[in-house]
């Protein structure tokens, strides 16, 4: 089963392990993810989506696995992505997708339970990423 979506996972270690997330003005808290183009490898899609949605250039690290989400019917591929520069605690990036939106980026403590501001599919994605990282 080929993954239709790719999710770049950007982590940073402060007092705790944190994952890059953002607030969509219409759809709450999310992780960066997007569609894999025909013929595109999922790791390259992850790097492209991170650049489009967050304005961040990155290189791909390890493949964290794939998960099919019943809620959407899509299979997502998860790739850890490495960013060369230190990223701020929060910032806003204007993404051209869907007519253009300002996304407010922040760091979510990976081991913290996501709030009600997160859609269920992203809560499930966080749980999957936590599980894969603790197995490694």
UniProtKB/TrEMBL annotation:
<dbReference type="InterPro" id="IPR015797">
    <property type="entry name" value="NUDIX_hydrolase-like_dom_sf"/>
</dbReference>
<dbReference type="GO" id="GO:0016787">
    <property type="term" value="F:hydrolase activity"/>
</dbReference>
<dbReference type="Pfam" id="PF00293">
    <property type="entry name" value="NUDIX"/>
</dbReference>
<dbReference type="InterPro" id="IPR020084">
    <property type="entry name" value="NUDIX_hydrolase_CS"/>
</dbReference>
<dbReference type="InterPro" id="IPR000086">
    <property type="entry name" value="NUDIX_hydrolase_dom"/>
</dbReference>
<keyword id="KW-0378">Hydrolase</keyword>
<feature type="domain" description="Nudix hydrolase">
    <location>
        <begin position="1"/>
        <end position="130"/>
    </location>
</feature>
<protein>
    <submittedName>
        <fullName>NUDIX domain-containing protein</fullName>
    </submittedName>
</protein>
């Amino acid at each position: 089963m080929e993954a239709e979506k790719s999710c770049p996972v950007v982590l940073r270690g402060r007092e705790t392990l944190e994952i890059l997330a953002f607030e969509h003005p219409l759809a709450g808290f999310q992780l960066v993810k997007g569609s894999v183009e025909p013929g595109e490898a999922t790791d390259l899609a992850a790097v492209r989506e991170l650049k489009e949605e967050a304005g961040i250039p990155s290189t791909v690290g390890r493949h964290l696995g794939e998960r099919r989400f019943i809620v959407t019917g899509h299979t997502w591929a998860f790739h850890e992505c490495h960013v060369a520069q230190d990223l701020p605690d929060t910032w806003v990036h204007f993404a051209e997708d869907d007519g253009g939106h300002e996304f407010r980026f922040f760091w979510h403590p990976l081991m913290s339970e996501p709030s009600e501001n997160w859609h269920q599919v992203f809560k499930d994605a966080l749980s999957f990423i936590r599980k894969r990282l603790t197995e490694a």
